[in-house]
Structures are given as C-alpha cells and as structure tokens.
Amino acid sequence: MQTTYIETQQISFQDFRNQILEDYKLGRVSREMSYLGRREVLTGKAKFGIFGDGKELPQLAMAKVFRYGDFRSGYYRDQTFALAVDALTVESFFAQLYADTSVEREPASAGRQMNGHFATRSLNEDGSWKDLTAQKNISSDISPTAGQMPRLLGLAQASKIYKTVKFEGSEKFSKDGNEIAFGTIGDASTAEGHFWETLNAACALQVPMIVSIWDDGYGISVPTMKQRAKADIAEMLSGFQRKEGEFQGCEIIQVKAWDYPSLLDAYARAEQFARMESIPVVVHVVEVTQPQGHSTSGSHERYKNEDRLAWESQFDGLVKFKEWILNYSIEIDGKEQVLATAEELDAIDEEAKKTVKAGQKNAWENYQKTITDLISSVLPFVENLKGQNSEIENYISQFNKLVSKAKKDVFHLVRRSLLATRGTNSAERNQLMQKYNEIFEVEKDNYSSHLYSQSQWKAENVKEIKPVYSENSEDVDGRVVVRNNFDKIFEKYPETLVFGEDAGNIGDVNQGLEGMQEKYGDVRVADTGIREATILGQGIGMAMRGLRPIAEIQYLDYILYCLQGMSDDLATVQYRTKGGQKAPVIIRTRGHRLEGVWHSGSPMAGILNLSKGILVLVPRNLTKAAGFYNTMLQSDDPAVIVECLNGYRLKEKQPDNLGEFTVPVGKIEVTKEGNDVTLVTYGSTWRIVMEAAEELEKLGISAEVIDVQSLIPFDLTHEIAESVKKTNRLVVIDEDVEGGTSAFILQQILEKQKTFRFLDSDPLTISANDHRPAYASDGDYFSKPSSDDMVEKIYALFNETNPQKYPAIF
C-alpha cells in the first residue's frame, strides 16, 4: 500500500535541516525567477509576465505530498510547485517567457502558452502513452478563471474508478487508484460557477481531491468582500464540511501562507484524508502576499493602501520563513542545534540569484540562436536578389536596423522581397522561394500542428467496416440498435464508461442504455447530478488518465453549459501541449428536431466555430451513431456525437456485426442519386430532405441527396464537388439559424472544393428562422425548414432558368 507523507517523516535532525534549507533555497530561486521575469518583460525581451511570488511556502508544502502518478489541475501561479516536483527548470521557465518553440527547451507548451502555464508530457513522440505512474503529472493549464476545475473532478474520479476497473495497460495509469488529483485556484476565482459545481460534485462522489485556494485578499484589484457572499471562503464552505460517519462533504483546512510548519501539517493531513479515505479536501491558504502585484500589466500600488503594502512586506512568506529558520533551535544530547546562521541564508540568497541569472542567460541565448540561425540561413538568398529590384536593398537596410529581431521580421523581409520580384523567373528568386517554403513548413509545425491527433490512432485512420445484414437481421427501434451496440462496446473495451443525467438506473431518457448499469455496474454506467460543465470535466480528466469516457449531455441545447470547457480546454489539449497530452473523450448528446424552445435547438455553428480541435459527428440515424462510437473508440481524437432525438422510435434494421462496424469520419454518403441539383444536409433534417427530393422528382427535378455525416472533418475526399460537377446546382439545407452551419458547409464546398466553377445558378441555403423553434409540431413546421419550404425554394431555382418548363408556383 502507498504510504503518506505523515507515515514517512521519521528522519534525523541533519536530514530535517537539509530539507528545510533545500526548501528555502528553492523558494528563493522561485522568487528570483519572478523578479527577473518581470524585468525581462519591462525591458521588452518578453511580451507579458504573470508570476507566483508570494505563494512559495504553501506550494513547497503541497509538493511534499505530491507523489508519482498524482495529477495537478491548476492555476498559472504555481511555479514554485512546478519547480519542486521537477516539472520546471529555471531555463524552461524563461524559455516559456520568451515563447521558445522548442519542445526540448519548453516542454510544457513549446512556446504556445504565455508564462506560468505548466504541463508535463503524458505522451511519447508517436502519441502513445507514457507510464504516468512513473512521473508526477501536471495537466496543461488554461487561463480562463476556474476553467481548470471541471477537469480536476475527472482526474480525481479516475483514481476511484481504477480501484475496480482493470484492463490491458491500466498499470501505466494507476496503482490501484491510490493517486490524488490536486487543484489550485485563486481566491477570487472561487466566485465562478465552475468552482462550486466541481466542489459540489466532488463532495457527492467522494473522490481523492485536494483543492488549494490561494487567498491574497483580492481578485486583481477587487477586494474579496466584493467577490462573494462571505469574505472568508472557509466560512462560506462550512456547510460542505463532512460529518462523522457520512459519505458526503469534504474536509476544510485553513492555514496561513507564511506559517511553514503549519503548512506542512495542513498538507500532511490533507493527503491523509484524500489518499487513505478518498475524501475531498479544501486547503484555504490565507494571508497570501503578492509582492509584484497581479501581472506586468499593472501596479498593485494603485489599489492597495500603505498599511496593506507594509503588512505584505512584513508577512512575505520568504521573510517569515527566514525568521523561523533563524529562530529555530533544539537541544539534542545536551547540545543546542540550529538550522542555519544569517550568513548561511544570505549565501543561499546570493546563490539563488546567480542560479536564476545563469538559467535566464542560457534560455535567452538558446532562443536568440534560433532566430540568428534563421537569419543566417535566409539573408544570403535575399541579398542575392538585390540586383533584381532596387527596393530589396532598402528592405535589407530596414531589417538590419532593427534592434531586436523576431521570426516575423525575417518572414516579412522574405515575403516583401518575393512580392517585389514577382514575375521574375531567376535562379536566385527560385532559390529564395525554395528556402521560404522550407522555413514556412518548420514554423507551420511550430505554431499550427496538433490541433487534431497526428498519431497512428487519429480518427481519419480508422478503416471503414460496413454493417453486415442477413435474413435474420431484425427491424427494431433505433434505440435498440444503439443500446445493443453499447453492450458490445462495454464488453469489448473494459476501459470504457458512460455517465450523465439519467444514464444509469433508467438507461437514459430514450432507453439507449437500457439494462447497461445492471449488467456492467454503476461505476461504468453511472448517473450524475444536473451539472453539465462537470460532466464534461469528468470526461476530460478521465481521458487524460487513460480511460475511455463517454460523457453524456442529455440534450444538445444543454451542451452550451459545456461550451467553455469544450472550447478552452478539451479542444486545445493536444494543440496547447504540441502533442504532449491528449483527452480522447466522446461527448454523447441528442438533439435537432423535436418540440420546443429548449429541446430542439441546433447550436451547431457555435460548436463548429468555438470547438475546432474536437470532431463533430452528426449521424442521420442510430445505426450511423453506433458506427461512430465504434470508430471513435479506436481513435485518440475527442469527438461530439449528436444522436437524432426523433429517431429512437423509428425502425432500423439491426446489423449483425454490432460493436464492429465503423462509420469513417470526413466521408459523405450519397443517399439518393440525381442529375439536376445537389442537396447537402445532415442529421434529422436528412429525412425531410429525402421527402422533398421525392416530391421534386414528381415535378421533373432529379435531386441528388448527400448526407455529410461528419462536419469536422468535412468531406476529406471532396466527393461533393463531383456531385456538383454533375448537377451544376447546389443547395445546402440545415436546421441551424441563417448563416450558421449552412455558411460553414457552403464555405467548405465553394472555397475548399472550388465548386463555384461548376454552378449554373447561385448556390442556395435553406435554414431555420433566426429564433428558437416554437413548441409542438406546428412550431417545428413554421420554425425550421419543412418539406414544403424545400420543394418550393429548390423549384424556384429551376423556374428562374426555365420558367416555361417550371412555371411559378406563387
């Protein structure tokens, strides 16, 4: 069994002394990083700085109970903690400050995130998982206030799941569920809903989670008393305090940020509760100081009075730590022992400054070398063009006068030179063009790679396996197809689990999970509270720890509660770590045409535009949905799968190869062939388009109907272009609002596939009205495109070109 910090603290005085001085040294190094980092920003060598000064002691204490396999989901001021768990070095700290794009020098984000955003690398270069139990793990930080909290819930819950769930390779993710998930958050950010939703869920689920609240009395410039109902968050949380014998609630520990021994005790107790009893713990760290203010964007002297500033100077954690060390003495064998003299601590202070300055210097030189190497490789090719255009010499002169040069300046020089010599076909220009293409590919990888998986498991690589039917294949309700497919999935993939509102006991509101909890247990098929943001967070955290979660959001309309997490967290995981982390969660939801304002919305354009990085799959029936689940469980991309809400009771033929057949992503399907017009649609609207197409046939118009199936990725082989090339007319039909998903589809077809060349008529979009759908069947008819709307508008295209053959209807 894994031991806790309390159980391992039988040490000699000399070892105790060494630990204290190591902590002091690390705290001083971190502080000097903050000081020097701020100067680097203010002198123009870096763009922005936000630092962890003032929080050194509590983070040192937290690091002592952070063990291999544990995870942190935190806050952008945890640099001391990152140093203490060997997830950060002085050099990598400054490399991130300078936005160095080297993964080796800046492993957290390869220069993609501003400083203070930490991460460890969970993946090997090929995208396979490392052994996460052999390292201390930091899930990649995000800036949005409290946005890290929902993910924290999933990271913690994974430990509880791993106590009972085992599968081939699970030993790389957990040692019998003994890991803790640590969260950190600024005090003012506890005013955010994500904080309360996460803590509420953790207290209900009883997961091993420790949340540290750094309380410095302000949210930027706004005092705590204006942030919440109570200035003291611990007092406000008192109702969450667990009672003896109950399996609800959490432990709450309050401790001062400058009291080193009390901090050690607080975190030792917190670890004991979380690791040994799976109890969530809140550590409220009060009287935190912030010596340099919020960030380099402003000065805290503007909103803190002289008394407050004087108090912060006196109660600076490192100042108080130094006092405590100097005042500490103990008698051993009749002899007084001290921890250190003032001279020894002063020497540590000086050594810390030297260490930080040396690390900063190395980081700056490495970063600058990248740019000087780029200049050296490019400038000779530009200079070779001087004789071909007089302006180029001026461009080079302007470039050389720049005091500080960045990559963008090099590219600006090259592109202006190519523009100036356009129309010239010379060896020199061709050489520069070749060099430009070469360096552009490098920077494209540096700044734009890994939005989606680049591994062998990316969804596009999953081979299509068609459904198999026989004379024994039954006609069943669509819900039965997806239910029976889930049965095969849970049997085949023990690491797969599903959770959501009503997903467990009753088998979801549409019975797509009927009987699954009874068969596979309430760990793998679970009900949740009504809390969509943390349902998504559970999925993200679990997926980051090797599980394959299906996070169910009951209705598509309610996915808006998740959109912040989808956009800021899930969609960017691979991108913001440059392939260092992944979270292949599947978001299951249902929507489109039904009844009413809140159960038949189609916010697809919002999902498309705000969640690039997540696959968006829109099956037209439940067999297609089942195939997409089978596909995505072989992939390491995250995805949202939107089941048709009005399809659960419609009959479908059940495939014989449930759990095996796949639907390829990025592939359209022609569901009706035609010659006169191409109709492009998806999801529930497809059925109505098919009805309209049959009506058009009666009017002498042969319509080809295409189900796009997958919005992201979209028609990878450009099959729609082949259809438009044949029909010369294009209509996009969608139940989203005007200019919504139809605009995205139209852009993909016209611009990416260049089908405008084949059109004999203007492209047409038929979408819903701009309001939410009104209630009942008549509300649907007058709110969203009906078959009548489609027939009339498509017919009008032909009336314009041949009014004799197609006389006007109205």
UniProtKB/TrEMBL annotation:
InterPro entries: DH_E1, THDP-binding, Transketo_C/PFOR_II, Transketolase-like_Pyr-bd, Transketolase_C
Entry's Gene Ontology molecular function annotations: oxidoreductase activity, acting on the aldehyde or oxo group of donors, disulfide as acceptor
Keyword hit for Oxidoreductase: yes
Domain Transketolase-like pyrimidine-binding intervals: 476-650
Cofactor(s) needed by this chain: thiamine diphosphate
Keyword line: Oxidoreductase, Thiamine pyrophosphate
One Pfam short name: E1_dh
Role: E1 component of the 2-oxoglutarate dehydrogenase (OGDH) complex which catalyzes the decarboxylation of 2-oxoglutarate, the first step in the conversion of 2-oxoglutarate to succinyl-CoA and CO(2).
This protein's name: Transketolase
Species this protein is from: Chryseobacterium cheonjiense
